[in-house]
Specification:
0% of the residues lie in helices and 38% in strands. It is mostly beta strands and 110 residues long. The strands form three sheets. A four-stranded mixed beta sheet has the order 2-9-8-5, with no helix packed on it. The chain has a three-stranded antiparallel beta sheet with strand order 3-7-6, with no helix packed on it. The chain has a two-stranded antiparallel ribbon with strand order 1-4.
Length: 110
């Protein structure tokens, strides 16, 4: 009898993303479990925070432009034939910029 090799099911391993800050470069790598590498990642760019991009290799990168909490679905497909796919909804908080405090110096009277 012929044997059939079955690849284990693919899943998105990343469940949490580190917070981002407006105006600061951001980078996070998404991870998948099982399946056959290499993986190919994608997300609806309209749902990503403005200024961020998801590469095909799973890098979420860029410089966020607007504060807020964003939820978006990421998708991954593996290289098996037929290909397996999985998706996960992730949440990313983009915080406001740090405000720099200006020191005020008073006038000195002589």
């Amino acid at each position: 009898p012929a044997q059939i090799a079955v690849a284990p099911p693919l899943s998105v391993a990343t469940s949490r993303l580190p917070a981002a800050r407006v105006g600061a470069p951001y980078q996070a790598h998404l991870a998948a479990n099982l399946g056959t590498t290499p993986y190919r990642w994608w997300a609806n760019p309209i749902k990503l925070p403005a200024g961020l991009t998801l590469s095909r290799s799973g890098e979420l990168y860029g410089t966020p432009r607007l504060p807020g909490t964003y939820s978006f679905r990421v998708h991954v497909r593996d290289s098996s034939r037929p290909a397996m796919s999985a998706h996960q909804t992730l949440r990313l908080t983009v915080r406001r910029r740090h405000r720099r405090h200006r020191r005020r110096f008073g006038a000195f009277a002589a």
